[in-house]
Amino acid sequence: MTTAGHGSAHPALEPFGLGSLALRNRLAVAPMTRVSAPPDGVPTAQMAEYYGAYAVGGFGLIVTEGIYTDATHSQSYFGQPGLVTAGQIAGWRAVTDSAHRAGAAIVAQLMHAGAISQGNTFGFETIGPSAVAPRGKMMVDYGGTGGPWSAPREMTAHDIDQVVAGFVAAAGNARDAGFDGVEIHGANGYLLDQFLTDYTNLRTDEYGGPVQNRIRLTARVLAAVQEAVGDFPVGVRLSQTKVNDFTYRWSGGETDARVVFEALSEASYLHIASEGRNFIETARFPSGATITGLAREVSRRPVIANGGMHEPAQAADVLAGGHADVLSLGRGALANPDLPQRLSSGEAFDAFDYEMLHPLATLDCAAAWRARRETETGRFPVSASASSTS
Length: 390
Known about the structure:
Blueprint: E1 16-18, E2 21-23, E3 27-29, H1 45-56, E4 61-68, H2 86-101, E5 105-111, E6 127-128, E7 153-154, H3 157-176, E8 181-185, H4 191-196, H5 211-214, H6 216-229, E9 234-239, H7 253-263, E10 270-273, H8 279-282, H9 291-299, E11 303-306, H10 312-320, E12 326-329, H11 331-335, H12 339-345, H13 363-377
Parallel strand pairs: 3-4, 3-12, 4-5, 5-8, 6-7, 8-9, 9-10, 10-11, 11-12
Antiparallel strand pairs: 1-2
């Protein structure tokens, strides 16, 4: 178990303005795949309860799991929710209401799977920047077979236009569903990251070759979404590593990073996933700059740091050192939906247990784990139906 220790003086508990979003603190729930939606992709009451629990627990910001953006190629997993149909919009409205009742802001993460699709209700074909099979294996925790990925069909100019249109439509639907903003998923090996990655993008047109071209689609999506939704906040998530390739780093290192961050400098914020548990050690370039600190410097935008932020001392150092403005937690939040309240009171954090995600990373599996833990410890989880203490 990790001791909170810093108490109410911890800088992560200070309010922060993330663009136009007034957050009650600097703690965010990171986007996490939960593969718990029904086949129609409509969020359920269970999902509203799940997200609401983080709001009741005191988090200032919640970023949803990746949400597919169209009814063709964007879905990555069976059990993934969408933001395409009227029913899906209504389902997400229940989720946003649950978060807002307890005082949290919530943004929708919009994603396109590209070649990293192992379960698509709308068809079997996958698309990508080039006909290159992804590295790694399909993810069993997300319902995959554990076998190799297939090579996608190389995208045409029309395909690219359709992808952009899907992000734009989904962003408008997110606003209608009551979200406080959207986050464009340009990280972790999915479509936009496939364009940025040199070994999956072998194109010779304006989207291939140097990093300035490979980041072009992400920048185009950002600009198109912003044009469509006006002052609605639009962030971008980035990473070097991928769900299917944990060791990858941008081939041009800090030089590439500067190009990427400048290209996305109109975003409301950048959300950067680091490469390991110890953020300060693993997220540095040879020059000594951290990837998030460099993102702040180059983009001149607020930055959310993700990775290892469940360690209070490290989290305080990241904020004090100017490496980030907001801290997002995945595993730490799963284990402690009330982590901000624990940090304030000095109560110890529960350690993350991988059994929460086995045999599948679903809400049902997590609920079964919690039921077993309650029997063992006599402690009961935070509930979205409980009264908010924020």
